[in-house]
Please model this.
Amino acid sequence: MNKRKDILESDVARVLTRMTIPMIFGILGIVAFNLADTYFVGKLGTTEIAALTFTFPVVLIVNSINLGLGVGTSAIISRAIGQKNNDRVKRLSTDSLILSVIIAILFFIIGEITIEPVFDLLGADSSSMVFIKKYMRIWYAGSPFIVIPMVGNSIIRALGDTKTPSLVMMFSAGVNIVLDPIMIFGFGLIPAMGVTGAALATLISRAITMIFSLYVLIVREKVLSYNKVTLKEIFESWKEILKLGIPNAIAKMIIPLGTGVITGMISSYGTEVVAGYGIASRVEFLALAVVSAVSSIMPVFVGQNYGAGNHSRIIDAVRKGNIFSIIFGIITWLTLWLSGGFIASLFTANSEVSTIVMKYLFIVPLGYTFQGVNQIIIGAFNGTMQAVKASGVNLVQMFIVYIPLAKILSSSHGFIGILVAIVISQILVGVIAHIVFEKSLVKNKELSLDV
Model:
């Protein structure tokens, strides 16, 4: 309860810092999952890492639906907390978990029957498809271990606790890092399973996350309701959650859907380029971890203050987040530019793949400053129950600016043209997102968000 009071009353910068620091480690845990898989699978060969790159947009799309549900749940529960409606908090928490189980079952069924046509569409060749099938069949089977903890951790964060989900994610990532080499290359009585082993390691690690998150919700926080409830009441909760969850899922799906289109374009340049793009994309998640942490706590901070009517605190938080993003983006670009060659050498010995990684890490981070602003504004939109506008920002970036521009520039500049298109889209849409949010919430000059 003190943490919830903190969000509504304490110094904005101090609260944002307190909430963000644990989230940084949590997001680093998520990144560690991806980097560990990329690192160890990369040791198997270029075809295997290319196969993993093809799975990336599909995994992101599924995770985007989960995250959309989680963000919708978090925002709704945060508002209920701000309104001090504890019964509603329990009802929404319980019903969101029930909904997550249903969604997990649907993921498993649909995923299993669409593997080949989906990856054919993405441009995967026959050699990559063999490894894609091995990885995705296991990944889809573990859907409950992915969906349930994502929603569960969103509920915990809505309660004002960003530390526990982060610790759980870090522990789970640690398990994955230990299991990856054992299950990929074999150890003792455990046979070498290659890409299949990477998928199994992820599944086991996610299962641990699910157990811990359920323990916190049921035993420690006691926010699940066991009262008799009618289907009508459950459907009402689902309606409220999905009202924000669906636009958020769409908003988050737009990026991986676009990434899938771009991956298809890049596949025409060869396996080495796909592999290099995949490695650099995973490194990018690490580079953006801090800004992602700031944006991930925005729906909670903004949601609770929105429910309490504290609009000035919302504006102050967004302003501080944008300033931080600008400074951090510049530092990140310089760091990746100077260390690109070393980073590439960690993941591959193939000189062509390394060159692609270095080009990506020099060009694309130029747009990180504005990408961070974009993420923070989207988080604030979600907290103020404007999920449609959040999805609109991503839609404009990916399908109105990035993909058309990538097609135009790639025709004359090849792969480099695609990278330049990323930067231009990030800068343009970061500015647009800032202006749209200001017009949505700010009514006078005194509350200007200008940084």
